[in-house]
Amino acid sequence: MERLVLPAFAKVNLTLDVGIKRPDGYHEVLSVMQTIDLWDTLYFEKVPQGITVSCPSPGVPSGPGNLVYRALELLASSFPGGLRVEVRKRIPVAAGLGGGSSDAAAALKAASFLYGLELSEEDLVSYAARIGSDVPFFIIGGTALARGRGEIITPLPEAFQLWLVLVNPGFGVSTKEVYSRYRLRGRKKKRTPALLTAIEQGDRRGFLDALGNDLEEVVLSLYPEVGFWKQRLIDLGAEKAVVSGSGPTVFGVFPGEEEAEKARAELSRENKLEVFLCKTVTREGIEQKTKQLMNTYQENIKGRGGCSEGV
Ligand code: ATP
């Protein structure tokens, strides 16, 4: 196969417990991460040599600064030719949704597939960890527990199918800055064990109670408007509203699709906001979407000479 198209899905952190700073400068984290149905689309094409990565979105570098390039560089010595990649972003950038990390994970999978490298999931995870703490999660996807600096991943059974409304206030946040302002105050109760118990017991109330993020306090102190959107989501019927990762995106959990759609419509009227209605995605869901995208792409390029439009 010469060409491949892959979706790179976003995540939310259902919980994010941040612990002590380690000697390597990273904080210990414990987080339940969840794939959601918001995705970038990446087009890969084998070329005789070299790596080319283009991305037309503002705020995202083309070329070596792109995490996709870094991912392919790691594997470049294991394959004979080159790769050309086009990254079409839909996931807001520097938003706490892991878009760049997900693109990088998709690039590792694509290179392995197109050049028949036969890398196991374990191999891919270990390459992914060299790119960034969040990248290994995107090799696995679905619902998963992340430990260490976030790179040790254990798949979990699907939590609950959730209907979410995401509000992105339209500016990016530096993950590094948020972590640098985080202060661990004494011993505190972690949320993640309670979430794991609730998942195991199918306890939706306990699940909602356990959702939360230690970095939220820092994000809200830096950007008070995020607190405003969190409250708006609650006022519009969210059972819970939580900042994802290092923010600034905040997601509300709604009882069902109808309630979520109403809130999305209402919030979409607000200025400058990016609002998304999303549901959570399982590992099977990721596979299905990948196949569907590839089939549409193949139909599209028949007789069109590789045009990626319309997928
Ligand atoms: P994290 O929580 O993992 O830091 P995030 O969702 O907050 O992720 P990203 O959207 O991954 O943030 O972007 C972080 C930075 O990475 C941005 O400043 C962006 O310029 C850079 N970047 C490099 N490659 C990409 C890419 N393919 N997509 C998005 N951002 C990228």
Q: Could you describe the 3D structure shown?
A:
The protein has helices at residues 67-75, 99-114, 121-131, 135-140, 175-181, 192-201, 204-210, 216-222, 224-235, 257-268, 283-301; strands spanning 3-21, 27-47, 51-54, 82-88, 143-147, 152-156, 163-168, 212-213, 240-243, 250-254, 274-279. Strand 1 (3-21) and strand 2 (27-47) form a beta hairpin. The two termini are 18 Å apart. The protein folds into two domains: 3-157, 2-Layer Sandwich (Ribosomal Protein S5, domain 2); 163-279, Alpha-Beta Plaits, CATH 3.30.70. The chain is of the alpha+beta class and 311 residues long. The chain is built from eleven helices and eleven strands. The chain is globular, with a radius of gyration of 19 Å. Helix 6 (192-201) runs antiparallel to helix 7 (204-210) and helix 8 (216-222) packs across helix 9. The strands form two sheets. Strands 1, 2, 3, 4, 5, 6 and 8 form a seven-stranded mixed β-sheet that branches. Strands 9-10-7-11 form a four-stranded antiparallel β-sheet, covered by helices on one side. The structure holds adenosine-5'-triphosphate. The site of adenosine-5'-triphosphate has 21 residues, from helix 1 and helix 2.
